[in-house]
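Lab channel / #folding
Pinned by the channel admin:
"Please post every new chain as: sequence first, then the structure tokens as a reply. Keep commentary short and put observations after the output so the thread stays searchable."

First post following the new format, from NK:
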Amino acid sequence: MWSIIVLDFRPNYPLQTDRLAATAERVVSFLMKADDIQIVVEDLQYLREGWGKEISDPEARRGSAVLRRLLVEDAYGQAWRAIGFPRQPKVIAVDIKHFLGGASRSDVDIALAGGVTVRAASMVGLCVFKRPCAVNPTPPLTLNGFLGEREYTLSEYLDSETGIVQGRTATRRDVVKYFANVKGGVHLGAKQRRTEKDLVARMKRFEKKVSLFQKDGLLFELVAIGQAIGRSPDRGRFIEKANSALQRPSR
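Reply from TO:
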């Protein structure tokens, strides 16, 4: 038998119960199984502790499935609200606009936001311009952070630009969906496959434009997304409160 965490916004703490109360219709939109919340906790711990140590195709497939569940399907946001936090978790990550300076999109040959650490090397703000452009990125917001950082809500982060190639842009949502749905071989229905055709066409422009450590630069953008979620302060706040509600020790 699994328990249900019933959210009560007024006292701002979760109540644990093994039965659905008679007032279920009032709170049904705020219910989430304890097991589902635990999966979110474990996924976030994986992004903090294990994600990005190896940059390989199998790791990209596994990690992109986790990111799709947490971000695109909004499991993280739903769990965040289910344990009593308001609105959305926040993420501190690189804003590619901070590296473009006054350059127009037509001046950019290729740009990737980065904000990733792999094999003890940190990479951020890879930009190639068609003509000289002055760039003055903002300082890091966090200890051991990256130039050009800003704070996003989770939905803002997912819809923010992570790359530009020859005037075409890709969002972080695009990157996650591309690796999970296309590169990861996730089974899609006929309608979803039609929807993904445009995504494939756009993302093909980014593939193999940049190579780092003999890997496609687009893969590093995927890793950067997971690392940003994994190191965010709200990740720690969520895990601590979720484990308290689930009566499990925090890590």
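NK: The chain is about 40% helix and 20% strand.
TO: also worth noting, Confidence is low (pLDDT under 50) at residues 1-30.
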